[in-house]
Amino acid sequence: MRPQSAELETTSTERLADLLKLSYEPMFAWKLDGAIEFWNAGAERLYGFAPNEAVGHSSHSLLQTKFPIDFAELHSQLRNKRYWAGELHHICKEGREVIVDSRMQLLGDDTVLEVNRDVTQFKALEQRLRSVAAIVESSDDAIVSKNLDGVIANWNKGAERVFGYSAEEAIGQPITIVIPKERLHEEHEILTRIRRGERIDHFETVRERRQSDRHFVIGFTR
Fold it and tell me: pTM of whole model > 0.90?
């Protein structure tokens, strides 16, 4: 008869294995110099391969993994540090590429436990934001963003040209540096409406340049 402690340990191990299998996060285990030995429901959901299609195959071949460093270097880091984290590109069963934030832990028997988080949509959004930022920065129009306290957060080249302040001088300052005194009430009213979740349509207003008494009319969008 096995000792009770051994039975409890076996039960705990089985429960942990069940949790890993059911986890939404893609998880699989592979031998450092071999094939996949474990493939959970999260991995099947993301990659499209059933466990019987994945187990026994090299994960790098199955998923056509693109590593940010040479695999020999990753292999060495796992050997020496027993841990690696980074971004991987994988190809799903249907041919779609996914980008994952990957964490790998080398266990005592040369088994690598790999846990991945799908960041494909986040990376696509990040790229779109970079493109928008580049367009904004290169625009001849004055484009300015500020927070709900009216403090300038972004100031493009067009704003530098129109208002006479450099980005370094403007960012962190209140937007009132370009608003004539007789128009300050307008800013308060607009911020109040925005805090309530209202949309502000295009409108015409007056702004002033740095060190100038000359006001000018500007089409304004919020």
Answer: no
